[in-house]
Specification:
- The chain has about 210 residues and is mainly beta.
- The protein folds into two domains: about 80 residues, Phosphatidylinositol 3-kinase Catalytic Subunit, Chain A, domain 1 (Ubiquitin-like (UB roll), Roll), CATH 3.10.20.90; about 110 residues, Lipocalin (Beta Barrel), CATH 2.40.128.
- It is built from one helix and 13 strands; from the N terminus they run ββαβββββββββββ.
- The strands form two sheets. It has an eight-stranded antiparallel β-barrel with strand order 6-7-8-9-10-11-12-13.
- It is elongated and about 70 Å long.
- It starts with a strand and ends in a 10-residue tail after the last strand.
């Protein structure tokens, strides 16, 4: 068993001290804390991260591997807005017998992936950059409540671009001139509207 006490970053107690099964995961503890916060503080849209010292704990870590025997496990808790996780995509005709699909994948843990796929019937329009994929991180912008900043390593350097969140998180907008698909053979300067897979279709793609 492990005695766990969780406080907010402001020092307020939000959980415990309470004796828990030492084999429980951080994810299970987060679930308990989130449920209590939802019931008491109406924070359904917030999710928790637990911090031990200066380290953010991973969800699959076991309490037994964090706690010291005979000493209460003191953790701090921070709440953050959940990311609009899912797969967002758009496909457009961009030339004669040329189509391109742009795909942005955002995971709840902040991992993100941007890719584009270009399809053409003409060998003369077949370029090495017709299919590209980049990985990085997504986080909310400090200066815009409805925008995400995406950071990805491209050609050996870290590059950032912004996407606007619309339609309650079912649609993201990004200028192609700022995203990783810029400066490729079939790129333009269009504003891309990427719809979340499974969401209600929208009218218009430009």
């Amino acid at each position: 068993m492990a005695v766990v006490h969780v406080t907010s970053l402001a020092g307020e107690s939000v959980f415990g001290p309470e004796e828990l099964d030492a084999s429980a995961t951080v994810s299970a503890l987060i679930g308990s804390i989130s449920n209590r916060c939802s019931a008491n503080d109406s924070k359904e849209l917030l999710h928790m991260k637990l911090i031990h010292g200066a380290r953010v704990l991973c969800p699959d870590e076991l309490l037994v591997n964090i706690a010291s025997e005979g000493t209460p496990l003191e953790l701090s808790c921070t709440a953050a807005r959940p990311l609009p996780d899912g797969t967002f995509s758009s496909q457009q005709t961009i030339g004669f017998h040329i189509a391109r699909q742009w795909i942005l994948i955002i995971n709840a843990d902040g991992n993100a992936e941007w890719s584009h796929e270009t399809y053409t019937d003409s060998p003369g329009d077949d370029y090495d950059d017709n299919f590209m994929k980049f990985s990085g991180r997504a986080e909310w912008c400090d200066d815009d409540d409805l925008a995400l900043q995406i950071s990805m390593e491209i050609d050996g350097s870290m590059q950032k671009f912004k996407v606007q969140i619309e339609d309650s998180g079912d649609l993201v907008k990004v200028d192609e001139s700022s995203c990783p698909s810029k400066n490729t053979h079939h790129s333009g300067k269009r504003t891309l509207k990427l719809k979340k897979n499974g969401a209600t279709p929208f009218c218009g793609s430009h």
